[in-house]
Design brief:
7-stranded mixed beta sheet; 24% helix; Nuclear Transport Factor 2, Chain: A; 143 residues; single chain; 7 strands; 3 helices
């Protein structure tokens, strides 16, 4: 299995967040499916459809030179034989910026194909007032 083949949706998701931390456009794009109708929505942004638009958006995100680290918590996962949906809370830290950034709620959708699991949709949006959010501290896996 090559480094771009992902045996599980968790492997693909971990590679995605690791590539974000490296500001690695190629690494981020290696996780995406090669399907034409892939979708990405950055927080408070428009819907991007297709690999070209998604690649360009990540290039712009990384162009500032700021290093972004995203840690995820409170996962809820739904997995079938060919599709996986992960909902996570993203905690974003920008290197050199000590401000507390708002919580992001993200949904990552993966599809299983001949080359393993691939990302087909990433949708991230700012969370509402987090003081009023109630959730369980344990991960949820739905089958």
């Amino acid at each position: 299995m090559s480094t771009s083949d992902f045996a599980t949706p968790d492997d693909a998701e971990a590679a995605f967040y690791a590539a974000l931390a490296r500001a690695d456009v190629g690494g981020v794009m290696a996780i995406w499916s090669e399907e034409e109708e892939v979708v990405c929505v950055h927080p408070a942004s428009i819907r991007l459809v297709g690999l070209y638009a998604i690649r360009e958006s990540w290039r712009q995100v990384f162009a500032s030179g700021a290093r972004i680290t995203v840690s995820t918590t409170h996962p809820v996962r739904w997995v079938s034989a060919t599709t996986a949906v992960h909902s996570v809370h993203q905690h974003v830290h920008v290197e050199g910026d000590d401000r507390l950034h708002p919580l992001i709620i993200a949904t990552n959708v993966f599809s299983r194909g001949a080359r393993g699991w691939r990302l087909v949709m990433h949708h991230a949006a700012p969370a509402p007032d987090t003081d009023n959010l109630h959730y369980h501290d344990t991960p949820h896996i739905v089958h």
